[in-house]
Amino acid sequence: MIGSLKNSPYSVRYEEFLAALGAAREQAGLTQAELAARLNKPQSYVSKCESGERRLDVIEFEIWCQALKIDAAAFMASF
Question: Alpha carbon 36 to chain centroid distance?
């Protein structure tokens, strides 16, 4: 369970969001290291975001989607 959301009613939904992010990366055919390179970040950044250790804000999420070449609004609508 995600540490900061452990007792939150939103924890399950956030875990689903994280799973969808990881799935989107995999569907794009990218490893964490490859996505990290596109984001100009270390691989650990992607790992921490996907595991919930680090939360993405809305701007970071948009940049993440751009790196995956997916539309952020479409991702959220399908999520």
Answer: 11
What the block records as the tokens of 47 is 């790992």
User: For the packed helices 11-27 and 43-51, what is the interaxial angle rounded to 10 degrees?
Assistant: 140
Q: Which tokens hold the place of 68?
A: 């995956």
What is the rounded CA–CA span in Å between residue 73 and residue 53? 24
The model carries a pTM of 0.84
Specify whether the CB–CB gap between 43 and 53 falls below 8 A: no
Helix H or strand E segment including 68: helix 58-68
- pLDDT tens, position by position, 22-57: 999 999 999 999 999 999 999 999 999 999 999 999
3-class SS at 44?
helix
